[in-house]
């Protein structure tokens, strides 16, 4: 059970709930602050104070005052009109992460919602009711308005959800679980949708996958070094300490650990003085990717516990303040960096694949084929990897440098953070497939060299991966091998 309090959510908690389906509850202390902020909203309504989003219109309509009897309808209209998402829906893990993040943000007590709204969000998680939320349509400022509106629809008994493996009307799922549709009150519609939870949910899950992939990429690279009889001296700690980047030092140390006691590595001058960059510079390149991931994690750790709606209610200070915490720029830039950092993992991996299959660059059978000429072996696997790497170069174009004005120029600079996060997720999927190809080729190469000469750690890894993809004895449909390997990498 993960307990939300608005302050201590971790990325590991998100994985537990979004991916593994763990249940959620909330702390009583945090709910007390929610009640205080709700009273501030109700007092504002009672005293006819003009407060944005409570008794005014939205965006360019912020100067339009709303009559008291229309305040609840204002919130319902907001959700219906802003539910303009298009395209394929987010995955259920992303949807669960979005719900969890929104509940956590509201529990900070700056949003002015009733406790029942937070309880109902948690009910969606614990009853496995997952709103159908289209992926496209957010500008990433004024929050993820369109995606979060589709999330909010489910609370109202509107829209569609995935429930018990089927798409059905939200009203039916709520009825089956004996949950009443929510009736929004002042400020609550705006509090549900004014936030960065779509981009942050996608970004958090993308980060977790990236971290796992990068760890695997190092072990796969170590096998490739053995398959190519690489020069181990390039990983000597003196080299990496001389430069001083901690992540580079640590990658080199892990490579040395993986290759300890290997009889397939060489010393400089034995077979060649030095290797190509894609081998020799593994610590420098992957170390830089680790640096990027640390930056991304730092921003996600803040954002998953942030108050990102508008206005924010500070009950103790007696203030209701309009600002711009919904602007997704910190996450937008982080996601663009994540794309770049992970694209390079695939980029250098594909170059190692080329060195494994190209007979002009090694002394292995051409394309690792069991019968070069009659059988093509890994030839077109390298094509597939090259295609994915090229696609990543397009996806890695930064989304955060783009902006487009909206709401009649009231919202004249936006982050495009959700586009960045979605593209980061696609990049990471591509990276996983590229390193899957490298793994398959490295397995074949070390098998040809002699697995009995491998280092103990890489040999154990070899044996694990050989249970996923068998040795290439004859040409077959290698697409299936790549997908089996990438599925394993996803789960491990």
From TrEMBL:
It is an enzyme of class 4 (lyase). Pathway: Amino-acid degradation; L-histidine degradation into L-glutamate; N-formimidoyl-L-glutamate from L-histidine: step 1/3. GO terms for biological process: L-histidine catabolic process to glutamate and formamide; L-histidine catabolic process to glutamate and formate. Keywords: Cytoplasm, Histidine metabolism, Lyase. It is found in: Cytoplasm. It comes from Halalkalibacillus sediminis. Transmembrane segments: none annotated. There is a cross-link at residues 141-143 (5-imidazolinone (Ala-Gly)). Contains an active site 4-methylidene-imidazol-5-one (MIO), which is formed autocatalytically by cyclization and dehydration of residues Ala-Ser-Gly. Belongs to the PAL/histidase family. Its main location: cytoplasm. This is Histidine ammonia-lyase.
């Amino acid at each position: 059970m993960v307990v939300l309090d608005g302050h201590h959510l971790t990325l590991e908690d998100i994985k537990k709930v979004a991916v593994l389906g763990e249940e959620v509850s909330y702390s009583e202390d945090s709910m007390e602050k929610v009640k205080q902020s709700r009273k501030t909203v109700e007092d504002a309504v009672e005293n006819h104070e003009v407060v944005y989003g409570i008794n005014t219109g939205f965006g360019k309509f912020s100067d339009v005052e709303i009559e008291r009897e229309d305040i609840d309808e204002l919130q319902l209209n907001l959700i219906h009109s802003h539910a303009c998402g298009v395209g394929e829906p987010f995955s259920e893990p992303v949807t669960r992460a979005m719900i969890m993040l929104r509940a956590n943000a509201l529990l900070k007590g700056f949003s002015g919602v009733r406790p029942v709204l937070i309880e109902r969000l948690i009910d969606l998680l614990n009853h496995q009711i997952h709103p159908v939320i289209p992926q496209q349509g957010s500008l990433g400022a004024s929050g993820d308005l369109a995606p979060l509106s589709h999330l909010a629809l489910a609370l109202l008994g509107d829209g569609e959800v995935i429930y018990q493996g089927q798409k059905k009307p939200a009203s039916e799922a709520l009825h089956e679980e004996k949950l009443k549709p929510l009736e929004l009150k002042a400020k609550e519609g705006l509090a549900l949708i004014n936030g960065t939870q779509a981009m942050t949910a996608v970004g958090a899950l993308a980060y977790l996958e990236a971290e796992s992939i990068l760890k695997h990429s190092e072990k796969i690279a170590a096998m490739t070094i053995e398959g190519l009889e690489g020069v181990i001296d390039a990983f000597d700690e003196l080299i990496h300490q001389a430069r001083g980047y901690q992540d580079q030092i640590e990658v080199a140390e892990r490579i040395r650990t993986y290759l300890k006691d290997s009889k397939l590595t060489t010393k400089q001058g034995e077979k060649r003085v030095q290797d190509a960059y894609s081998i020799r510079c593994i610590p420098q390149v992957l170390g830089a990717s680790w640096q990027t991931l640390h930056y991304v994690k730092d921003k996600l750790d803040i954002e998953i516990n942030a108050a990102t709606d508008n206005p924010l209610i500070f009950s103790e200070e007696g203030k209701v303040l309009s600002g711009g915490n919904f602007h997704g720029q910190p996450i937008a830039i982080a996601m663009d960096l994540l794309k770049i950092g992970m694209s390079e993992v695939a980029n250098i991996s594909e170059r190692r694949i080329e060195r494994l299959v190209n007979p002009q660059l090694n002394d292995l059978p051409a394309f690792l084929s069991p019968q070069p000429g009659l059988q093509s072996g890994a030839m077109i696997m390298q094509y597939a990897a090259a295609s994915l790497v090229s696609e990543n170069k397009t996806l890695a174009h930064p989304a955060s440098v783009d902006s487009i004005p909206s709401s009649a120029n009231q919202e004249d600079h936006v982050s495009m953070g959700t586009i960045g996060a979605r593209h980061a997720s696609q990049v990471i999927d591509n990276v996983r497939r590229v390193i899957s190809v490298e793994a398959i080729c490295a397995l074949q190469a070390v098998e040809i060299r002699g697995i009995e000469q491998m280092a103990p750690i890489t040999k154990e890894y070899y044996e694990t991966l050989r249970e996923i993809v068998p040795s290439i004895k004859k040409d077959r449909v290698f697409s299936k091998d790549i997908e089996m390997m990438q599925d394993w990498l996803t789960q491990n």
